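Q: Convert this sequence to structure tokens.
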Amino acid sequence: MKSNKLWALGILGLSTLIYTCKVSQSVLKRDDAGKIIVDKNPSSAYLSPKESMKTMHLPKGYHLELVASEPMIHEPVAIAWDGNGRMYVAEMNTYMQDAEGTGEMKPLCTIKRLEDTNGDGKMDKSVVFLDKLVLPRMILPLDDRLLVAETFDNSIYSYRDTNGDGVADEKKMVFKNESANRSNLEHQRSGLVWNIDNKMYVTVENVRYKLDNGMLKPEYLHDGPGGQWGLTYDNYGRLFFSAAGGEAPALNFQQNPAFGNLDIGGQYNDKFQAVWPIISTADVQGGLGRLRPDSTLNHFTACTGQSIFRGNSLPDDLKGDLLICEPVGRLIRRAKVINTNSKITLENAYDKEEFIASTDMNFRPVNTATGPDGCVYIVDMYRGIIQEGNWTKKGTYLRNQIDQKNLDKNIGRGRIYRLVYDGIKRDKTIPKMLDLTSEKLVPYLSHPNGWWRDNAQKILVIRGDKSVVPALKELALNSPLQLTRIHALWTMNGLNALDRTTLLAALKDKDAEVRKTALWICEEPLRNGDSALVQAVEPLKNDPSADVRLQLGLSLRFNDSDNAQRIIAEIIETHPDDQVLVESQKKYQRQLNEKAIAEKNAKMMA
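A:
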């Protein structure tokens, strides 16, 4: 860590054009029948950021702005901002530097901290916050600490800069797991997102974490949540996983994984799984069966880096939509998230087209995020090879494509873009949340951008400052804004300061999402056998909202009392069309039966 050096970025002198360009995206080329014309013979040559941006096709009104690129960043895979708006960039500098993956496990990777010091939207200051890492895959800013997890290491560490030079000089293990993970790097956990319930979630493993006296306390889930690279959540804490290996663009989003993983029929169809590149994508693992006759990818195969847009500087109709990266197809899907009677379904926002697509063979979007300015940020790893070495061995179809197209030659680059829209100004406020008193953080729970609400809540919970509880209670009971009431409830709960009176009032809130939130908060005391609370929540079995009824059934699931189980049964009997609750409960009962049989057989064998 001591070897890191601050870039005062005299670099900027030679790359001013790169950092100030905004390119209007061209319209899709079509034939006379209106069909998209696919570039069947694209060049694999490296393009400058400005040239690459000209290959990007977006809907009318949308544009991309370059925020950072090489030489400031290299091989970026994930970004996150701290409460003062400083962007941390995880770089996998050793990832597939040739087709064999030579040297991939060497500790040569970095996390950089980028800053926009004048608010013009371009990163103009960079420091290597942390180096000598092995393929960093999860980063989460807390307060002035950054949580980091590396590939092949199951422990999680906290890093801090204690002297203000921008370089981490304090390292603490906050979660210890000495078992080595030697599975393929594409199949290891990712995420580490601080959700609205003040729990930190990851993919793959059946665990979430709670911050407890500076350490991460694991809470083991009923099921493993699945997923692979990428994890996101909406305004209400609904998590969305994805699995490239399973070619699943989204999964386990019907209920929180604490209640078990659940996918149900009809949450999306084969039409949704079809993708629509505008470039020949012959370099796909799996061979010709993954391609259409026009040589384009025919369905998701590398779905990753998804995010729900929760900002305020893009059109309202984008809010709540799910963005899914498909780096093999050189595209980003925009999915409409539709709630019908508590069942969530996904639909492509466009007919046989994608939200963002490129004819640049090296465009490799691997992550997206809503930023402090209310816009969408896109992490482009910008490279030739995007599959791990297991699938690029000599003699394979993919290796032949790599060799023919010289895809192994483009390494060591990377770009971060901002998505903007004509006529909508981004929020240029530079956050200083880490410098504010707790009292001054509370109003940000009402901010129109989810990034600000999330960070205000997170920082308040981490500080543990209960002096703000009266202000939070006032918001929870009387704010006219639904999301403010929800964040106030969760913040009080995170401070262990949510009184029973306020909780019961929230159960009667006029807004269904607030009632649902209150029921979710009730889950822990209900699990611990709070019989009075079982009686208090029972009237909600007749709630007009299917979402509320679903959450009631889930929150009562692990309470073994006759009353709790009776309420669940009555909801299902009265509302047999509540498909999510019905199928969720069936799966849970089946698992209980299988467990009982296994335990019985084990006793017989003993």
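The longest strand covers residues 331-340.
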